[in-house]
Automatic annotation (TrEMBL):
It is found in: Cell outer membrane. Residues 77-224 form the SusD-like N-terminal domain. Residues 349-502 form the RagB/SusD domain. Pfam families: SusD-like_3, SusD_RagB. The keyword DNA damage does not apply. Gene3D superfamilies: 1.25.40.390. Its main location: membrane. CDD domains: SusD. This is Carbohydrate-binding protein SusD. GO terms for cellular component: cell outer membrane. Belongs to the SusD family. The lineage of its organism: Bacteria, Pseudomonadati, Bacteroidota, Chitinophagia, Chitinophagales.
């Protein structure tokens, strides 16, 4: 039997498709890999295909992190929407499309990475005479596999760990692995990537490929996430106190001098300044191609009526996902540069005035594409400001460093936002609030709350204050994790047990 490895039990099939990155590549068909991996370019196309799984990752961060957090009070006024169950902590979201996509999308990416790695092992030396290129391709694939598994463990906790091609019969015997086992693979892959990837790429066609500093940054975040509290839920936090391990990696990025703190906040997200010196790793898109491989995340949290009010075609955001009053009121009056770029407060369309606010950080009205699935902007997964603020977080958790270093980092960020008056003696909750405003609409908030140990207190208090419609369920720690998709549970009852609370 031909080996296949889709890993989502409902789609245990081999999948190869064109890469959606701005990388020099051609479409890959679903032909058998036995006949595909026969040339140097085939292997390059294979690793490019592994990047394909990143295409929906930004949408996932907005749907599952921003919407789950205290940044949005996402109660629909136009019928039942998928995001309502996410926002309101419904127990019946195992069939939610966003939850299902998080599982299947990541495992499709893992399949492609494993497929490339397996063929490198079997044929790579014979086909690719350049040992340096072989190592780089392996490191890229392992970086991506680790990226996808890290995404899975943060959403679902225990997940099946698969490092090779398996038959459908084998897949039906593979249950969920302990979180420690998932992390062991993630860390091994990222350590290899950090040691083997180049610091940068010379060719323009290679823009967007993972670098050693991207691997170090994600590995640092892995150590920080493992160091978070366990909550007794078999989730991403293991209470391991690896803050110094993370700090060492973050300092290596800082000391490399490869990246700089942008002078202007708006420049980070400028359509004409992609791949700027703030960007350590981003999800790249290419517009105007067939098939369409642009981005969809810019409009995801934006109501269609706002686009109409600006004379633009509707995009698909449908009704508004309002920003919470709690977040709106948290901005200081001097925060004059971040808030207007990130948030649209009110508009009028066809004589109807909308007073609620929504995120518009990545929207440029002069660049609205003809196809709503083809926006021409990348999504930043890790940027230099994040590295600086993660360093401050490590120090506050007891890693080597001083309060003065923490304060200096926060004041640097605040000054760029327009706040000249320095602050001192920053605490962990204060740092998280500063991160909340700095990275609003970038999908970090939920993970920040979980990692920092603040999620129970913050979300419980927030629901009490914000839920004027009385539609949200009381917060419980089991909701830190999402449910295993019902479609996966149904394939072979008993193989996966559902996460508690659902």
């Amino acid at each position: 039997m031909k080996k296949i490895a889709g890993y989502s039990l409902i789609a245990v099939v081999g999948l190869l498709s064109a890469c959606d990155k701005k990388l020099d590549q051609n479409p890959i068909s679903s032909q058998a890999t036995e006949t595909f991996y026969v040339s140097r370019n085939d292997f390059i196309q294979g690793v490019n295909a592994a990047y394909n799984g990143l295409r929906t990752w930004p949408d996932r961060m907005l749907n599952l992190s921003e919407t789950r957090s205290d940044n949005l009070y996402a109660v629909s006024d136009g019928g039942v929407r998928e995001w309502e169950g996410i926002n309101s902590f419904h127990k019946t979201i195992a069939g939610n499309a966003y939850v299902t996509e998080a599982w299947s999308g990541n495992y499709t990416g893992i399949f492609k990475a494993n497929q490339l790695l397996e063929n490198l092992s079997l044929k790579g030396a014979a086909v690719i005479t350049d040992a340096g290129l072989r190592t780089r391709l392996e490191a890229e694939a392992r970086f991506l596999r680790a990226f996808y598994y890290f995404d899975l463990v943060r959403w679902f906790g225990r997940v099946p760990v698969i490092e090779r091609s398996v038959t459908p019969a084998e897949a039906l015997q593979i249950g969920r692995s302990p979180v420690t086992d998932v992390y062991n693979l993630i860390i091994s892959d990222l350590q290899f990537a950090a040691a083997s990837l180049p610091e940068a790429y010379a060719a323009a066609a290679d823009k967007g490929r993972a670098t050693r500093y991207a691997a170090k940054g994600i590995l640092a975040l892995v150590y920080m996430t493992r160091s978070g509290p366990t909550y007794d839920i078999k989730g991403p936090g293991l209470g391991l106190n690896e803050w110094d391990k993370a700090l060492t990696l973050l300092d290596e990025i800082i000391n490399s001098k490869k990246y700089t703190f942008a002078t202007k906040y708006a420049d980070i997200f400028d359509y004409d300044k992609e791949n700027n010196a703030e960007v350590i790793f981003d999800v790249q898109y290419n517009t105007g191609s067939t098939p369409v491989v642009g981005s969809t995340f810019p409009w995801l949290l934006v109501p269609d009526t706002w686009f109409q009010s600006q004379g633009k075609a509707t995009q698909g955001g449908l009704t508004i996902r309002p920003i919470s009053n709690n977040l709106l009121n948290s901005y200081e009056s001097a925060d004059t540069l971040r808030k207007p770029l990130t948030i649209q407060t009110g508009y009028t369309n066809n004589g109807v005035t909308e007073t609620r606010s929504f995120f518009k950080k990545y929207v440029n009205l002069t660049r609205v594409p003809n196809n709503r699935l083809d926006w021409p902007i990348n999504f930043i997964a890790l940027r230099y400001t994040d590295v600086l603020m993660l360093k401050a977080e490590c120090i506050l958790h007891g890693a080597t460093g001083t309060q003065a270093e923490v304060d200096a980092i926060v004041n640097q960020v605040r000054k760029r936002a327009g706040m000249e008056d320095p602050v001192s003696n920053i605490t962990l909750p204060q740092l998280m609030e500063e991160r909340r405003k700095e990275f609003a609409a970038e999908g970090t908030r939920w993970h920040d709350l979980v990692r920092s140990g603040l999620v129970e207190t913050v979300m419980t208090n927030w629901i009490t204050q914000e839920d004027v419609g009385k539609v949200m369920q009381p917060f419980q720690k089991n909701y830190i994790l999402y449910p295993i998709p019902q479609s996966e549970l149904d394939v072979k009852p008993g193989l996966y047990e559902q996460n508690l609370g659902y």
